[in-house]
Amino acid sequence: MQCGFAFLEAGAVQAKNVTNILTKNVLDSLITIVSYWTLGWALAYGPNPVDNLSPFFGASQFFGQDISNFGRFFFQYVFAARASTIISGAVAERAEFITFFVYSLLVPGFTYPVLSHWGWSSVGWLRQGLNIGDGTFHTTYLDLAGAGVVHLCGGTISLIAAWMMGPRIGRFLDNGQLSKMEGHSVPLASLGGFILMLGFLAFNGGSVADISLPGNGQVVAKAMINTLLCGAFGAICTLILHKIRNGKWTVLLTMNACLAGMISACAGCNQMDGWGTFVTGIGAGLIYMALSGLMLRLRIDDPLDAFAVHFGGGLWGLISVCLVSTSAGRGVIPSLITGDGTAIVHSLAQLGWNILSSLAIIIWSSFVVLPVFGLLKLIGKFRVPAEIERKGIDIWKHGEEAYPLVAYGHGWNESEAEEVMDEEGVWAAPVATIFHDPSKYQQQQQEDGGSRKRTFVRNGH
Hints:
Layout: H1 2-12, H2 18-45, H3 70-90, H4 97-120, H5 125-128, E1 131-132, E2 137-138, H6 147-165, H7 186-206, H8 216-246, H9 251-265, H10 274-297, H11 306-324, H12 332-338, H13 341-378, H14 386-391, H15 393-398, E3 420-421, E4 427-430, H16 438-448, E5 453-455
Antiparallel strand pairs: 1-2, 3-4, 4-5
């Protein structure tokens, strides 16, 4: 999944910021494992010695002590990394590196673990739910693979970060028009999208957690197929509507809609039939388009549509599972079809509980990051200076260009392409030219006042 996010974001940003976004994605995996091992797992699944506090957070097994299920630890670590890396797309091309470090520690180490404890720990208050009627029915938090605790959380923080940071320079013009600031590589972004699609199959299928018992293998396969169907319906719906409205077949919009559909499947891909995937996928595509357009109208700059994809897909997933679930007393639509009054009441109660859970996730995610982002903004460490943003973050912050000019090697003036060494022992070579005609290159050199050279270090010299 991290690889998919890295390529998707790299392709969606301008060439001058590719190294920056790749560095963030690489470090996100590394920072997250330290943060989750140190604190996150303990808050999520460590037993709490104070019984009255156990529904809200864990309080043991810090620094990986006494963990008995390392397979679950690894799986949960990757969920934590996914919640964190969602945010980088919303603030791409303008966030200070310290901002990335802060939320890469905060989200997987504190924000996400508390939410996963609420919803997935056996003693969490969201999972415990409520007894309905005479106690024969019990609501619970329906979310198999993180539509809420992962994607709704990450999408909420993405919105807050993008809003507080403000749009990229030149994104919105003074006359109210939208300036095109397109990514530099559609193929790279598409590759990332395909990798994420594959990753969702692994996570949604793997969230069933067991294939060794009779019948479990079929449940895993069903979850994976339903995930694909939700993504397909969301993508096709969005593609057709965009063609009708704008007359174009767009790959990036289609890819985002597919991801939104797969995210919406996270909540209940193990308990819906084919018609349920249609409802879930179509709804996710429509919600994605609506939220993406709303962000532009509100002049909130989200280069990757992280809010529309993850918040929209996650929230709809938590609602949709309560509409289409085939589990007894969980799905509103199947209960209405059967006409069973008791089942209808139970399914409506379950829907209400999942909506309440959604609100709890949004409030907690906002409560944690708002003061932290506000402090970073106050001390001037939230966003890069305007000059660096205009010229690109790669060279100034990292000293590495994603696409060095000399690496292309086209249009060199062959008569002057020989390597030379200056007086300090540094190898020098002419800068690659944009002129394919050598005579024009020589003319430009004369106008510039002489030969243009670019230095580079070789073999440690």
